[in-house]
Write a structure and sequence with these properties.
The protein has two domains: 48 residues, Arc Repressor Mutant, subunit A (Orthogonal Bundle); 45 residues. The chain is 77% helix and 0% strand.
Length: 93
């Protein structure tokens, strides 16, 4: 997972993601270097557009919320408020 975070960090700061830059980031974090993992990760990312993949993830996490009908969301909020109110009465009973 550390290697993946390092790739995301390099991408975020707009640095080229390659074996050299990834190794530098890993060394800076005092994590044990595994050259095989680095080479494998760089090879697997060769034809990947990281920006597009991150955008897909953002959209997929938002989609379920948007697909709910407005009325269903309103009912859920009302129920949560009702439960919270009942809980308050129990506390101060």
């Amino acid at each position: 997972m550390d290697y993946t975070y390092a790739v995301l960090l390099l991408h975020k700061v707009r640095r080229e993601v390659n074996e050299e830059t990834l190794t530098k980031v890993i060394v800076a974090t005092d994590v044990e270097i595994d050259e095989t993992k680095i080479k494998s990760l760089i090879t697997s990312l060769q034809d990947v557009n990281i920006s597009k993949e991150l955008e897909k993830v953002k959209l997929s996490t938002v989609t379920p919320i948007v697909e709910k009908p407005k009325e269903e969301i309103i009912e859920e909020v009302k129920e949560e408020k009702k439960l919270a109110t009942e809980g308050m009465w129990d506390m101060f009973g």
